[in-house]
Amino acid sequence: MIKKYFNKLTTKENISIIIITIVLSIIINFPLLTKSILTADVLLNNYYYNAYNWEISLGRFGLFITGIIKNFLVIKHIDLFISFILLGIITVIIIDIFKIKNKVLKLLTILTVTASINISSTLLFTYCNLSYIIAFLTSLLSSYILIKENNKTKYLISIILLIISESIYQSYISVSITLL
Question: How far apart are CA 110 and CA 18, in angstroms?
Fold first, then answer.
C-alpha cells in the first residue's frame, strides 16, 4: 500500500505541484524566513525546546516524540523548508481527494493551502511548526486512506494516523471530520 501511494505521489504532475507549493510558500512566508518574527511562545523557545512536561500533561506526547527526533533543537529555516515540502504533499492529497483536474483550480488549491491563515500562524511557532504540519498531514492521511482504500486494514491504519495527529495537536481532528 505504501509503495502504491509513493508511486502516485511521485508522478511528474504531483512533483510539479509540490515544487510550486514550495516556491509559493517561500514567497508568501518570505518575511518569516528573513526577519525575526516572534510570538510570545517562540521568544522563550527559540533555539532549544525541552518543556515537554507541559505538553505531555495536555496529552500532546507526539510533540515529545518529534522533539526527540529533532534532538530538541529548533532550527527555524530547516523546519520551515521541511514544512513547505509537507505542505506540497498535503496539497497533492487534497487535490486527489476532491478529484481536481482543472489547472486553474489546482493552482487555487495550492494558493489556498499556502496562504491559509491557519498555516501562516502555525509556521510562526518555530519550535513546533514542523510537528504541527505533521499533525495536519497525518490527520489528512487518516481521512484519505478511509476514502481511497477498500480493505479492512484501512480502519486500523486510519485510527493510528489519527492518534498520531491528535498526540501532536488536537485541533486537526477537524480536518478528518470535515473530509469524512
Answer: 9
Written as one string, the DSSP assignment of 95-126 is HHHTT---HHHHHHHHHHHHT-HHHHHHHH-T
Burial class (CB in 10 A: 0-12, 13-18, 19+), 36: exposed
At 153, list the grid cell: 486494514
Spacing of C-alpha 89 from chain mean position:
8
Place of cell 493551502: 113
- Measured CA to CA, the distance from residue 31 to residue 152 in angstroms comes to 46
Name the strand (E) or helix (H) holding 160: helix 153-168
Give the Cα separation of 73 and 66 in Å (integer): 10
User: 46 falls in which pLDDT band (50, 70, 90)?
Assistant: low
Give the tens place of pLDDT for each residue, 22-38. Answer: 999 999 999 888 877 66
